[in-house]
Design a protein that fits this description.
With about 290 residues, the protein is α/β, with parallel strands linked by helices. It is built from 8 helices and 10 strands. It has a single domain, classed as 3-Layer(aba) Sandwich (Arginase, Chain A). The strands form 2 sheets. The chain has an 8-stranded parallel β-sheet, with helices on both faces. Strands 2-3 form a two-stranded antiparallel ribbon. The longest helix is centred in the C-terminal third of the chain and has 22 residues. The two termini are about 30 Å apart. The mean pLDDT is about 95.
Length: about 290
Amino acid sequence: MRFKKVDLSFQSCNSEYNAADVVIFSAPMDTTTSFRPGTRFAGNAVRVDSIGIEWYSPYRNLSLKDFKTCDIGDLDFGVGNIKLQLSEIFNTTKRILKDNKTPIMIGGEHLASYSTIKAVYEKYPDLRVIHFDAHTDLRESFLGNTYSHATFMRHVNEFLGDHKIYQFGIRSGDKEEFDWAKDHIYQHKYDLETLDSVVEEIKNFPVYITIDLDVLDPAVFPGTGTPEPGGITYKELLKAFDLFEKLTNIVGSDLMELSPYLDASGASNMAAIKALREMILLIQKNKSNK
């Protein structure tokens, strides 16, 4: 498997793969989307519209141009083949990790995160996962699929083990999922309160951060397939990134479930793009502090 720069990259993230510390890729996976599809177009939309943001973040006091970040583009896999898609995402992530680089994935439906987290876990068996989402994603199966965007975190727990997943912003799911969560994971409903204490608890563990952008309120982020009223604001998400700076070993991350054509204004694209900028700079700073 060989990676190279793509013609269209995210903002200034156009370093050569071998020189890069952080590697971005996108997973155009939309196979188990159960309401409104379109997440497979997120990667391209994020790259095209990233020309509209500054390289510099006043929140991190850092600039993208000061770090070596490579964007290898959309993964090339067929639409509809879940097994093939998950395998390609897993192998890509594993290769990035093998080369001692940190992966950041742009989704795509949230099922794709199953493969990235599994690959990261194989390198870091003491992994902890911070999960922002409107939905529990803890079903055993959904609409006939064992592996689905509504089940993936339940399957992550199977290999990760109990009490290593930390959910925030959850406000939708089946009663069985909420009941199951009480005995197996840490789940904070509705908002990001208590995130500070969780970060303090796990700050010295390897941590993967997975963000379903529907954790944001639909008034802020309408461009997603399953919007849920009652979400957090973008400013609250930025405060979470401030807390993430206390983590000593961020080993991977993703931003999922942008469906760009569901928001004609383009505001959802920009929220995703600026969140991605913050994540890149957060991880680059984290790596430079080691």
